[in-house]
Write a structure and sequence with these properties.
Helix content is 28%, strand content 33%. The chain contains five helices and seven strands, in the order βααβββαβαββα. It has 186 residues and is α+β, with helices and mostly antiparallel strands. It has a single domain (15-179), classed as Gcn5-related N-acetyltransferase (GNAT) (Aminopeptidase, 3-Layer(aba) Sandwich), CATH 3.40.630.30.
Length: 186
């Protein structure tokens, strides 16, 4: 009988099995349900169906369904913007995962970074995250995103305002992480 050692650091563990596939019109009910979920609403600004429909068709966007787990079931979605940017600056506009704490968000983020830098030729990959979303901020920081600034009281939330924390990663930083074995895919 052998016992496998499991490293304590989340970035070092084997990531969850995920893949990203293009979102189809038939997926939009799932996407809208995730956005309206009470667990997700405090951390995102939901879009209307028409905005999601447009992002599926617009060439500068990539709208993906996150499929994860053993059966690669729909587990969330993410949206990239700036896919045709002449500045090679891509934005992770939104990432929502249905079941938190299973490593699907981390694994999907790693696939998104690979797409942004390797497939789409990005030089910069950035995002903004609500200041109150400490779970997401910790994930992004642990995956190599650097805080670039803060847009104070930029969005209205229940009970007042929240700031947006801008975080980014440059291609050389991504390449350095890959060379260190930190960009592991399931």
């Amino acid at each position: 009988m052998s016992i496998a050692a499991v490293p304590a650091s989340p970035p070092q563990r084997t990531p969850a099995r995920v893949r990203l596939r293009p979102t189809m019109q038939s997926d939009l009910d799932f996407v809208l349900t995730l956005e309206q979920d009470r667990e997700n609403l405090p951390f995102i600004t939901p879009w209307e169906r028409m905005q999601h429909e447009a992002s599926i068709r617009f060439p500068d966007f990539r709208h993906f369904i996150i499929e994860g787990g053993a059966g690669l079931d729909a587990a969330g979605f993410l949206i990239l913007i700036g896919c045709r940017s002449p500045h090679h600056s891509l934005e992770l506009k939104r990432m929502v995962v249905q079941h938190k704490g299973q490593g699907l968000g981390r694994a999907a983020l790693r696939v998104a970074k690979k797409i942004a830098f390797d497939d789409l030729g990005g030089h910069r990959f950035w995002l903004d995250v609500k200041g109150l979303n400490s779970r997401a901020r910790m994930l992004y920081a642990s995956e190599g995103f650097v805080v670039e600034g803060c847009l104070r009281d930029a969005v209205r939330v229940s009970g007042g305002y929240d700031s947006l924390i801008v975080m980014g990663m440059l291609k050389p930083e991504f390449e350095a992480r890959r060379a260190q074995g930190l960009e592991i895919f399931g």
